[in-house]
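Feature request, filed as a ticket because there's no other form

It would be nice if the structure record came with a short human-readable summary line next to the tokens. Right now we just get the raw output. Example of a typical job, pasted below so the devs can see what we mean:
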Amino acid sequence: MSDAKHVALYSGSFDPMTLGHLDVLGRARGIFDEIVVAVGRNPEKEPLFSSAERVDMAERLVAELVATTPGGAPVRVEGYHGLTVDFARQIGANVLLRGLRHGSDLASECQLAIANRQVAEMETVFVVAGEIHGYTSSSLIKQVAALGGDLERLATMVPPIVLEALRARRNQADNPLGRLARNAPEE
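Raw output as currently delivered:
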């Protein structure tokens, strides 16, 4: 039996972190020896929250998760820039953790997993989110908030501190939600 630690890197923009992300993280705590939540930037998307804000929210949410569900792997949060596989190597992670929501995630996630294995010799482990989170996405949440949707209706998708942050962002004079609303595709 190997004494090697199984360290998973759970990366994403987490802009914002959802209950689906936390569900995947909670399930994964029973599989690995340690998990690092890596808050990065997706260059294809304009962030709603700064890197520092996303790391802060993730740290608070992870601390709450760990405190309320003892017995799983320890989890830490770190911000990073650059390639995910490079950051994984830097921190000693030996596997990438990815959450799956539904079948349409599978094709793109498998393509990324194969690329990471071919290019970086890094394996990917998928954890399926609970069915209640099957259609929750950070993009959807930002879209609802940007287009004036009732934020209270998002309470089944995001933790209370994310709702508070969305409310605060809406009340800022120069908020990214306004830009997101202006850039929304026309129907």
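Something like this underneath would help us a lot:
The chain has a mean pLDDT of 90.
DSSP finds seven helices and five strands in the chain.
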